[in-house]
Specification:
This is ABC transporter ATP-binding protein. It holds the Pfam family ABC_tran. By secondary structure, this protein is of the alpha/beta class. It has one domain: P-loop containing nucleotide triphosphate hydrolases (Rossmann fold), CATH 3.40.50.300. Helix content is 37%, strand content 28%. The longest helix has 16 residues. The radius of gyration is 17 Å and the shape is globular. Adenosine-5'-triphosphate binds next to helix 1.
Length: 238
């Protein structure tokens, strides 16, 4: 399987501060990888560097076989790289339906957009039931569903998610995991940052463990979950 997204030896951060240090990472077409690690280890910065939001000091990023190292985030979205940020990921004062329409802002095929809104309602019936509700009135789980559905409206080939399970109830975590599975099975590759290590390692195929900006470990998610040393040293799983 070829790679949809790669980063080679990237050094990234903000201003003059180097946070991500010499990291190489890849996501296969239709793949499903997790990036885990302690608080402040640079996971979000790594994701932002891939998207063009953080400063890239060194290294190379490719998407769909094209060099996107110096590209701006609006262009990567249009190329099919989707992003669900950790916070402020919906427009609270717009309805669910309007949020989905906003998710298609890079597109100019009205009929296709309409069909995709219907497709999202099929995938997320919870959202269809409340399509005229303001996003600000939704529960945490519903809001996260909307954020994901909104990102899917751009028809991404790969979707990067920053802690999609954070602050959710056990039930909502399982609902979001089910939706992510459906999205992945429909062909969109996933790269997911998570603090809920146990749950994400049970879901993802491969994982990277980032510690103080450097890759400490990578491999099949199941192998990392069973690795006693990794569980104790990096994952807080004991
Ligand atoms: N916009 C920013 N400007 C300057 N430094 C930042 C910025 N955002 C994050 N940092 C710093 O970068 C380091 C890594 O943060 P980052 O959010 O990438 O880690 P993380 O692994 O995603 O952490 P968490 O799991 O807590 O979200 C931290 O020391 C943080 O203070």
């Amino acid at each position: 399987m070829s790679d949809i997204l790669t980063a080679e030896n990237i050094v990234a951060g903000y201003g003059d501060v180097h946070i991500v240090q010499n990291v190489s990472i890849r996501l296969e077409e239709g793949g499903n990888v997790a990036v885990i690690g302690p608080n402040g280890s640079g996971k979000s910065t790594l994701l932002k560097a891939l998207l063009g939001f953080a400063r890239l000091f060194e290294g190379k990023v490719t998407f769909g076989g094209r060099d996107v190292t110096d590209i701006t985030p609006d262009k990567t979205v249009a190329m099919g790289l989707g992003y669900v940020s950790q916070t402020d990921n919906v427009f609270a004062n717009l309805t669910i339906q309007e949020n989905l329409e906003m998710g298609a802002f890079t597109r100019n095929d009205g009929a296709g957009v309409k069909a995709d809104i219907e497709r999202m309602y099929q995938m997320f019936p919870e959202l269809e039931r409340r399509k005229k509700f303001y996003a600000g009135s939704l529960s945490g789980g519903e809001r996260q569903m909307l954020a994901i559905a909104r990102a899917m409206m751009a028809n991404p080939r790969a979707l990067l998610l920053d802690e999609p399970l954070a602050s959710l109830s056990h039930k909502a975590v399982e609902t979001i995991i089910d939706k992510l599975r459906l999205i992945n099975e429909s062909g969109t590759a996933l790269m997911i940052i998570e603090q809920n290590t146990r749950r994400i390692l049970a879901f993802s195929e491969r994982a990277y463990v980032l510690v103080t900006g450097k890759l400490a470990l990578e491999g099949p998610a199941a192998t990392i979950l069973e690795n006693e040393d990794a569980r104790k040293r990096y994952l807080g799983l004991g």
